[in-house]
Design goal:
The protein contains 10 helices and no strands. With 203 residues, the protein is an all-alpha fold. The protein is elongated and about 60 Å long.
Length: 203
Amino acid sequence: MPPLNADRAVLMAARDVLLRDPRATMAAVAEEAGMGVAGLYRRYANKQALLRAVAADNYRRYIAFAEAALSDTEDPWHAFTDFLRQVLDDGLPRLTLALRGEVDVDQGLRDLDRLAIDTTNRLLRGARGSGILRPDVTRADITLLLEQIGRIDVGDDVRSAALRRRYLALFCDGLRAEAARRRLPGPPPQEGELLGRWSVTTS
């Protein structure tokens, strides 16, 4: 595997640091990235700029997983559940939770959010159309469930990852069309309820 370029290395270091402490300083990120604080500030003018870059990268990774699943037409159920597993294994829900309330959301992030929603909805429509996904599950349902599974942490990274996969498998069984014989109680979450959890300001 080729070495990471400097910008990618900084983003990966920031992901690791922010997962541990969303309020970590720029100095902590610089130390994790193996660079000086001045070098980090040359790339990102302030912490908000860094946080927005990390959030944007999180969105792009998510969208890439969804688009890969959309391109797999051989086995729609495997494509859909593999997408969920990749999102979970990559730590995207955990990072989303870590960044919530810390990022001033700008127009670029809003645009990525809309693209993520659109791509996921296309994936859900395909899964429903194939008859494998229960019809009453929404994208917002998927988001909140992945976040809940992503919270699982027993203090050991390997064990925590194994438990997340275990509960994802249980979750996926409830997503199958045959499970729709049992109606879900209450309405699904609304998109506005999800967006409202962020600190949203224009920058």
